[in-house]
Amino acid sequence: MSSEPRSFSPLKSYVPRRGLFDPCPPLGRKYYSTPPNLYLGFQPPGLPQFSPQEALEKGTLWKVFYDYYDNPYRKGGKGHG
Questions:
Q1: What does the alpha-carbon distance between residue 78 and residue 7 come to, in Å, rounded to a whole number?
Q2: Residue 35, in any domain of the structure
Q3: What pTM was estimated for this model as a whole?
Q4: Tally of domains in the chain
């Protein structure tokens, strides 16, 4: 096991396993996103907040819970490759 610190990324990926005699073509790398609240634990008091208008646009009041989604399958997406 490596002692290197792992960098945090909410975008995860995996390659589906194929059976030895699987007649289907390989699916390639698959991506999924994990929400920021998984890594926060308890919500600490005094978190920075969006303005009411920004909160309505972004879907959350607290900046730490905002999770921008970039489609990894779209050409030019962060996870595309």
A1: 15
A2: no
A3: 0.56
A4: 1
The Cα 43–Cα 47 span in angstroms is 8
The tokens describing 1, both together, are 């096991």
C-alpha–C-alpha distance, residues 27 and 30, integer Å: 8
pLDDT tens profile 62-74: 998 888 877 777 7
The single residue listed with the structure tokens 């909160």 is 55
The predicted-structure confidence for 1-50, as pLDDT tens digits, reads as follows 445 555 667 788 999 998 889 898 888 899 888 888 888 878 788 999 99
> For residue 79, what are the domain limits?
48-81
- Whether 32 is in a domain gets the answer no
Report how far residue 80's alpha carbon sits from residue 13's, in angstroms, rounded to the nearest whole number: 11
Instruction: Cite the DSSP H helix spans in 1-81.
Output: 52-58
E strand spans, the chain: 11-14, 30-33
